[in-house]
Amino acid sequence: MKINPATVLIVEDHQDLAANIGDFLEAGGMTVDFAPDGLTAVQLCSQHRYDALVLDIMMPGIDGYEVCRRVREDLQQDMPVVMLTARDTLDDKLTGFEHGADDYLIKPFEMKELEARLISHIRRHRGEMDSKSLQVADIVFEPKTMRVTRGGDPIRLSPIMLQILRILMRESPNLVTREKLEAEIWGEDTPDSDTLRSHLYNLRKLIDKPFQQNLLHTIPGIGYKLCEEKDL
Fold first, then answer.
1. 212 Cβ contact partners less than 8 Å away, ≥ 6 residues apart
2. Average pLDDT over residues 168-180
């Protein structure tokens, strides 16, 4: 896979691993910057615009969760964030997604898989999608600006949640299977089943919980629909 010029910040306190990741990504045509700890990462993100972050969780000072939160909330940046960690419990993954991560790789991992996921996330974040606006009930998605509103109120979503919402709105009121969602978002590099479920959980909290009518519906054992209840 090829990608137009992209700059990735690698946030990793193990120098050898950081160097190996950087060498591999640079060989594929990406430009790489490094941060050895969380505070340096936040400072660099405040000074530069990166196309993606590769973010270790366990680091001295502030951990990867807090880095992700500060990048999302304090700096208001929405570049894709791929977290790297040796922790593989569901709670760890949910914590990462709740802090704004888009993807999650367990150490040890294959460099080719990391590269493939970064390319996929960066391409989607750059808006390589249909430009026509989408609307389901009172939710409106403007692909050109990546702006989502419900009832006129703006809703801020992570890049991966934007992709899920776009697919569900495009197919509405039809059902979208789990397999179709995973294939369109991640291609052949599909993560474990908890990943999609976690993103949908967070998406539902943002687009449904503050409102009277739920639009995101789970069809047990099959997939998902974004529609009004009359279309179920």
1. none
2. 91
